Amino acid sequence: MQRILKELIKSSPNNEITYEQYMNTVLYHEEKGYYMKNEEKVGKKGDFITTSNISNVFGKLFASIFHKLIMLEKIEPFICEIGGGNGRFAKAVLDELHNTYRDTYKKITYILIETSAYHRRLQQELLPIGKKVIQFQSLDEAKKNFPIFNGILFSNELFDAFPVRVIEKKDDSIYEVKITLNKDDQLCEIFVPLADERIMHYLDCTKIALVNGQRFEVPLPMLTYLDELNDFLGNVVAFTVDYGYTNEEWMEPARRKGSLRGYYKHHLINNPLEYPGSMDLTTHIHFDTLISNGTKYGLEFVKKLRQDEFLLAAGILTFLQDNFDSNPFSKKSKQNRAIRSLIMDGGMSTAFHVLIQQKNSKINWDHVFYDK
Fold first, then answer.
1. Single pTM value for the model
2. Distance CA 293, CA 234 (A)
3. Strand, coil or helix: what is 60?
């Protein structure tokens, strides 16, 4: 990966690349990119953990929501998960529908869009591909088979993995932070006066005013993807699970170093230039941008809840089993511990939000949530 990056930099104008180019390379290079390599990334042996890998109860709960939307609210019986990873969420949803909501299970088709060949193979080992589950490598491939998608759209930690551009304000001027090679031929940052009008336009539209010393990530690739997603969506309900901030929260002093970080063997790495190709890179997403762009495309904002609040409102406590079990390693005990970890103060769920949007659909959400 170091060789690939050095060749990219030396072949680029002024021997410098943007963080977007860097992240695209270290995360998505066809052979050496972090997400594309045949190595475990999620779980104990990987670099990070996701909510759906803590317990199947996360998928079970969403299965009950999907069931209500399809059977009570007459949403088309298609579920599309973008960035399905190792397939554990899809497996939990399908198992719960099969075991508890058999009539719904018979109706549904589950669509997975996953760019990583490694993760597609994991999904193939776990899921009934070609029967209940259809797998696509890209959004473009999905569009060829489903020119207009009607149904339920779901993503979990999708947008936080999108490349970003990085800017910083210094001495009352805004610079783009780019990557070059130092005199020892090692990766380093360089500050270049901001010249990209798209970034300027983004700052103007969001009314974000940086202070001196503040670093900020601009999600231009996310905006492009939302444009491409727009003409795919027909009558849909969309769930976006991720961590991020509102524009107001981005301006708080605690956010002034930006949010671009790495995760390597479950350790937080502040320097994104370390372990290129071997480390996950992530940023907090821009929720206000996701909402406003959705509105522009007809995706009506329904609500945004902190994940623990969402789980409680959706009825996660109904999965909590009261019967005493002396075996702490039993399936029942593990599920109970997982539920408590998902809703406890200071737990993983307090860092995540669930954004709900709907397009060409009018849902009676009282039918879906327990806590109204």
1. 0.90
2. 16
3. helix
